[in-house]
Amino acid sequence: MNPTGGISGPPLMLTRAASFVAVGIALGYLLAPVPNVELVTATCFCCGYLLGPGAGLLCSMLTEALFAGFHPMGSTFGLTLVAQCLGMGSAGVLGAVARSVVGARTSVVRTVLVVLFGALATTWFDLLTNLAFPVAAGFSIEQTMASLVLAAPFAAIHIGSNTLVFLFVVAPLLPKLLQIIETPL
Question: Cβ of 177: how many Cβ atoms within 10 Å?
Fold first, then answer.
């Protein structure tokens, strides 16, 4: 028990981590019918930002494995699932990196940095997942490049929508969540 009567240490971290996994999966299913618009990346980024790189990586990979592996529109497997888990794990780690870079900067600078890190996380996820199929299928370099060109409009929608999510939801919400994490009941 800590001085405020709450539980601290590993049980609290486990509870928080499990909460992020559950929220990430639920938000993923919420927007599952809308192509290239999702809230999983934002949730995983927030997990890393608030709980650190280790929890961010593990929670994000578990979230993506459960979300993509049991997706209502069809699950993924093989190299594509590995790429999705690695890409989303990177979003959690980038959240932790963003927190260390952001520090005590002004709200405008913090917002810009969070949005840039969010866009980077989404771009990396899209690159990994869009490369996974051509590699698994044994495509030539030319076929792989053609596949990436055909995927570009979908990636642009994904990156654009996530940039808006990071701008209007994640950046304003993170300071409030950070205050809750740092001063639990």
Answer: 13
Residue 7: Cβ-neighbour burial (10 angstroms; 0-12, 13-18, 19+): exposed
Neighbour tally for 184: CB within 10 Å = 13
Give the tens place of pLDDT for each residue, 119-140.
Answer: 999 999 999 999 999 999 999 9
Domain 10-182: assigned CATH number: 1.10.1760.20
Residue 136: count of CB within 10 angstroms of its CB: 13
CA-CA-CA-CA dihedral for 184, 173, 157, 116, to nearest 10: -90
Domain residue spans in the chain?
A: 10-182
Return d(Cα 72, Cα 177) in angstroms, integer.
Answer: 30
Contact present, 173 and 46 (Cβ < 8 Å): yes
Cα 3 to the chain's mean position, in Å? 33
Say if residue 5's pLDDT is above 70.
no
- The answer to whether 54 touches 92, Cβ cutoff 8 Å, is no
Q: What is the value of pTM for the model shown?
A: 0.93
Sequence-ordered strand ranges (E) for the chain? none
